[in-house]
Amino acid sequence: MNACTAAFENDALASAEVRRNHAAQCSALESEVFNRYATLLNTRVSKKYTAARGDLIAMYRCLATYLSTLGSAWEINTGFSDPASHVDEFMLPFKNAEVNGENASFAEFHDYYSEFVLS
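-> structure tokens emitted (119 positions)
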């Protein structure tokens, strides 16, 4: 997750090949997170872990949503041969996902994560 975010921040104006590679890596991570989310949805746990399972499901949902936003930004970005003059366009998915100056899904994830206890 952090590597995908850093890649976007550092290479959004890089060569088309570099940007396409980062977009593909982000897409692969999004698929992995979604698959883990789906698996967890179909996993039964004892009553002792029901609350923790709910929190894990919520965290996976938040991460998948954040990665979807990042993927949308890459998709727009990689559509331009020279993205430098299209920053507002490829940053739009992030702007649309913001609440109070931060990505809503990422902020929600951190709220769950900061209080997560597996017990």
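The chain has a mean pLDDT of 95.
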